[in-house]
């Protein structure tokens, strides 16, 4: 019922606010990290599983981001009622040794709680030995999927190397997270401009790959921007850059509620802002459950 939804948001956010105030007045940062996780309390446990499909750990190279340290990020997400988050590392943007980046990501996720942070290693198919990086993500780190950054790693989706990456990912049964955008072009550093990824080649590439699973992160589904992808059941969309209080519901009606997945793009964006958009959307309780986490959990284990 909608009243249950209101109670859920009110309880989790009021508790998060109280704990945040206590943390802010603590004498040392350690007090923040050792506050009890409110998500573990029966009184504030979410009514449905909440999965954040789009978070990063580590340092963004161009400005300081609060809660970018893994433990702080996990603490914040737990306090807001999340039960799981799919994470990659900001180091993947500029580092060339992605094998080391992915190893450190896997270790960080284990240290803060394997059942909460789910690592998605980064692959750059324009670098040598990327197939070995893919193998290690799958076989060594046992990651359920990978995350790619075509806009920052300087390749297009119509290049043969991306088709090979897509084929290899599907063959291994991995989920592919494709980052359409990380940062608004208006705030990007002048020496590192990255336009939103052109997705127009993707529908054709997915033909003949019935087992493909692609999650688009940071895309803005306005007008006909996503074209045929809106009707492709192999493709999902995160909520991080869907605009307006009616945007999530509108896109869920255009596609399907089980194809729109909660993704906050934390810590780059304000986590609570995405939850407000979701709360204010004209969604049934069943649709809310799917978008908040049920659909993501089921899709990840397919």
Overview of the structural elements:
With 302 residues, the protein is of the alpha/beta class. The protein has two domains: 1-35; 48-185 and 194-300, Alpha-Beta Barrel (TIM Barrel). The protein has helices at 2-24, 29-33, 70-79, 98-113, 130-140, 150-153, 160-171, 202-206, 247-254, 271-280, 285-300, and strands spanning 51-57, 84-89, 117-119, 121-122, 145-148, 175-179, 214-217, 235-238, 260-261. The strands form two sheets. Strands 4-5-6-7-8-9 form a six-stranded parallel sheet. Strands 1-2-3 form a three-stranded parallel sheet. Mean pLDDT is 84; it is low at 13-45.
Highlighted features:
globular, 302 residues, 9 strands, alpha/beta, 11 helices, three-stranded parallel β-sheet, six-stranded parallel β-sheet, TIM Barrel
